[in-house]
Amino acid sequence: MKSSNCFKVHSENLLMLFDELQKTYYAHLSHDRKEKETLFEHSKLVSDYCLMLIDAHGIEIIIDSLIEKLNQNMPIKNHKEFESLLKESFLAAIIYHDLGKVNPNFQVLRMENELFLQDKNLSIQSYHSFLGSYLYANVFLKRIFENEKFSIEEKLLLYFIVLLFSSAIIKHHNSIIDLSFELDEQQVDDCFSFLKTYSIQFDNGFGKNFFLSAVKILEEVNKLVEDKREVYFSLFATTKILYSLLTASDFYATNEFMTKIEIDEFGTLSKPEKEKLIERFKTVKPYNKDLYEKLEHYHSIPFEELTERNNQNLNILRQKLTAEMISNLREHSTNRCFYLEAPTGAGKTNLSLAFATELMNVDFSLNKVFYVFPFTTLITQTFKSIKETLEIDNNSIIQLHSKAGFHEKGDGTYGNEKRLYLDNLFVNYPIALLSHVRFFDILKGNEKESNYLLHRLCNSVVIIDEIQTYNPEHWDKIVYFLANYAQLFNIRVLIMSATLPKIDALHENLKGSFISLISNRDQYFSNQNFAGRVSFDFTLADKKRPDNEEKENYLIELSEFMIEKAEQYASSKDEKVKVLIEFITKKTAALFFSIINQDCRFEEYKILLLSGDILEFRRKQIINSIKEQEFPKVIVVSTQVVEAGVDIDMDLGFKDRSLIDSDEQLAGRINRNASKDNCIVYLFDCDKTSTIYGSDSRYKVQQTDKDIFDDYKEILVKKQFHALYEKVFEQKSKNMRNVFHADNSYYQHFKNFNFSKLHAEFKLIEDNDSQQLFIPIPIPVSFFENISDIEKMEALTGEMEYVDGVKVFEYYEKLIKMEFDDFTMKRIEFKKLGSIMSQFCISVYRKQLEAIGDMLHPDKSKYGFQYLLNWDLCYSPEYGFDSRKVETSIFI
To answer: Which fold, 271-529?
Structure first.
């Protein structure tokens, strides 16, 4: 027997409202305008999709829990009635979102409905969203007002929640969501006459006062709630998931009418599918099979037996680390948030898969996995690794970034691109890998397309890598959103890194909420099999930093030191050596690159340049040549882009010192697998660190805190990064004692339900006027996947060996002007083209554009890209911009 308070029953009851309609109202016309969908048919289909999404993602129990938390934290006495009405109003906001389509102007002008006459006096014109919001609100205002069991406080809270939900209806066709406090009095008056259309009998004065008193209602609710953080976040999260379900259900329902494509699979793992993945993880890779067969054995091996540095002990340490993580996870499996601090070379991808499969084995409600990365390179590497380890194809996993293009499933199905488009848009895949910007936009953003995906996070595993790369300015917000969403939506969060800031310490009430899965962290980091992977040499770091006049001589001396160390290493390694040197600016990197290219002592070396103005295909060429050991002696001259998850394994490193954890990131590119001896990172001091990191709180602490400044070397060598992070936290925590304190303006936005500012003031990457620069060079066809799409745009040159950037851009211009009967097909074409165009693009900022302003094509630079004209005069794929013709100091 179904509960009277379940969504299914509420849906059946809510749909009865449409029986009150005395005329036929339409919601949609087909593309050819021959077929019409009634308002009831659409609302019923929206309800059906909403219930399917709720069932697929286990959302009903989460909504019940959200309501229960409100009950616990607010002065609610009539629990059962409060819960029932709140739950019904939640679902009603989704089913009733188009009630406003009874507007006669909408019926005449949009639906071509001959049963109605246009009313030119209506202030709402042909719009339906505000009218729908008004009608929805009045259905529930009447019931709240007339319910004598509710106290004044209970009614106030319910009125406000209806206001929140009705705002989602007002904005359901907008690109953003926000509370609508400023409403037009004439529009409110004009809406009153439509109450009778649905037989809603209610006093006009009350409904009008409700909408025009929105600000006062919020003020009264703030007095009632006081500073209860849980209440504000619960209401924020409830409104966002409502908006997510509303817009997703509406999209699916409208799509079914327009395309006749029914969607009944939403990219979740069933119990048998989970069992299969868990079994594959335990058996496909021999080391995982060995681990699970001897779990207790590996966990109990004493560290004292693993001190000798050799490959066997290294592999045992990796197994021991994984065994310890699994053991700790099993002990704390009901917790929501976890840390995993593992040294470079420990195999974080395998550790993360062990984490995900272990949790899915104990909590059957978990049915999706999200991987979150700061760099595209990490997404593509992990994508391949997961597919291989779990033996899955594109039906089960998707990577989301601009270079990935239109994701097609692994069954070879062709022709059903519209279904694939929906799967791409709503990420209907059990395992998804995405950027940190996109992920946190889902959590805190107020933009429609990012919010589509929020409901998918319910009952999921989220794995976040390299969190130390995020701006420390936002660490407190990151942990606040993660910890709260994890509790409310049953999300299991794993934050992992080799240099891990334990950011829960930033909030007094969240401190200790993240469980560290490695109890013996120092025992692993100090073991010579990991610690001996790379040693640091500070000889050069103690030398005086050169001024501009001295820099060239300084770099010449640096090159002499480098060739000496490289030759020493090669002499004991069959005349083979791979050297990586990193500078803070492109200008210095280019100067050093020029110096060693002109030095005869480097004749035996292949010298490569890797910087922010090098295109993606060239980066891949460099990485592939190093992996395949194409050249016995290699030097890669780079800027800090090499820290961005670039998958190379070098023998010696040289780095212009900057942030402590940035220096460690470079060290992570040296002897990655911990299988070689005598691998050293030499730190030097050439350019001012403040050039790039001046506003970073870690840099400020390094420069101003005596302990950190004096202990820089020891922190780096002994991996005691917590010493730095604790000082950073100390500075930040001074203003964090009470997150709703007036000084903390960001957290005030929760109290004001200011969705726009919650989003705008938490940007992991500041906009900085970044634009895409299109460089129309020929790129080898081997770096592209969907050759058929390139053939269609006639962009292959000569012997079909290259893709011509000029022709790619010409096709882009043509596509912009092309007429499509179906907007979805146009978006699919742009998605496919986007991944191709990304191969020709680099990101540039305003100052960089100014430096090359006279080299840009004025007519072609108006379509969302800046177009580099006569690129061969100032740019080369191997070296980027020519420093003799372009001021490269502003490039990194």
So the answer is: Rossmann fold (3.40.50)
Q: Are the CB atoms for 592 and 581 separated by under 8 Å?
A: yes
CB 348 within 8 A of CB 518: no
Contact (CB, 8 A) for 696 and 659: yes
Task: Give the residue carrying structure tokens 């009603």.
Answer: 92
Between the two ends of the chain, the Cα-to-Cα distance in Å is: 65
| Per-residue 3-state assignment (H helix, E strand, C coil) for 740-805 | CCCCCHHHHHHHCCCHHHHHHCCCCCCCCCCEEEECCCEEEHHHCCCHHHHHHCCCEECCCCEEEH
Q: Is 780 helix (H, G, I), strand (E, B) or coil?
A: strand
Q: Are 2 and 9 in contact (CB under 8 A)?
A: yes
Nearest-angstrom CA–CA distance, 823 and 505: 48
342, 518 contact by CB (below 8 A): yes
3 state SS of 856: strand
Nearest to 669 by CA among 470, 533, 468, 538: 533
How many angstroms separate the CA atoms of 198 and 269, rounded? 41
Residue pair 653/583 in contact (Cβ under 8 Å)? The answer is: no
Q: Which CATH number describes the domain made up of 532-693?
A: 3.40.50.300
The strand ranges marked E within 734-877 are 771-774, 778-780, 796-797, 802-804, 841-844, 866-867, 875-876
Locus of tokens 């691109």: 417
Model pLDDT for residues 73-108, shown as the tens digit of each residue: 998 899 999 999 999 999 999 999 999 999 999 999
Q: Is-same-fold flag (271-529; 532-693)?
A: yes
Kind and range of the H or E run holding 26? strand 26-29
Q: What is the pLDDT of residues 498-529, one digit of tens each?
A: 887 788 888 877 888 899 999 989 999 999 99
Q: What is the DSSP letter of 546?
A: P
Which helix (H) or strand (E) covers residue 827, if one does?
A: helix 823-838
> In whole angstroms, what is the distance from residue 449 CA to residue 429 CA?
17
**63 Cα distance to chain centroid:** 24
What are the domain boundaries of the chain?
A: 35-259, 271-529, 532-693, 771-890
Q: Is 674 within 8 Å of 528 (Cβ atoms)?
A: no
650: β partners:
670
- Contact call for residues 286 and 278 (beta carbons, < 8 A): no
Angle (deg, nearest 10), helices 660-667 and 721-733: 150
Q: What is the pLDDT of residue 412?
A: 45
Dump pLDDT digits (tens) for 272-323.
999 999 999 999 999 999 999 999 999 999 999 999 999 899 999 999 999 9
Q: Which residue has the tokens 């083209």?
A: 833
* CA dihedral of 416, 417, 422, 427, whole degrees rounded to 10: 110
H or E segment at 229?
helix 229-259
Whether residue 429 contacts residue 398, with contact meaning beta carbons closer than 8 Å, is answered with yes
Closest C-alpha among 354, 367, 351 to residue 280: 354
Among left, alpha and beta (phi > 0; psi -120 to 50; other), residue 374 is alpha
Assigned token pair, 186? 């004439």
> Which two structure tokens, joined as six digits, stand for 884?
């003799």
Residue-wise pLDDT for 759-793, tens only, equals 999 988 776 567 899 999 999 999 998 888 899 88
The burial of 44, by beta-carbon neighbours within 10 Å (0-12 exposed, 13-18 middle, 19 or more buried), is given as: middle
